[in-house]
Model the fold of this input.
Amino acid sequence: MAMTVVVTRNASGRIRGYLTSCMCEIAPGVYTAPTMNVSLRTHVWNVLTSWWSPRDDVSIVMTWPEKSAPGHQRILTLGSPRTEVVVLDGVHASRRDLPTALASVLAR
Done:
């Protein structure tokens, strides 16, 4: 069992209530569970995935330590802005595309 952390942005009351029922909300939108097992973590992520809608401006990130993952940390994300977690020299970083207007200015 490992510490699991979920961070939400603009989450509905339904999502926040659900997370509060199985994790401790240590700050607005930040939930922790120091001993969440794999099956519960998988269940929580499946519920969040089924309730999340790409039409809403909601972001959810779940992370926990995992030795087999790059940097020994597993990271799952839902929401906008769409980011991709990449590993650069063993360090996790998030990458996202530049907005079209900014990309065209930088290309000049």
Q: What stands out?
A: The chain has one domain: 2-79. The mean pLDDT is 86. Residues 38-51 form the longest helix (14 residues). The beta strands are 2-9, 24-27, 30-36, 59-65, 73-79, 84-88, 91-95.
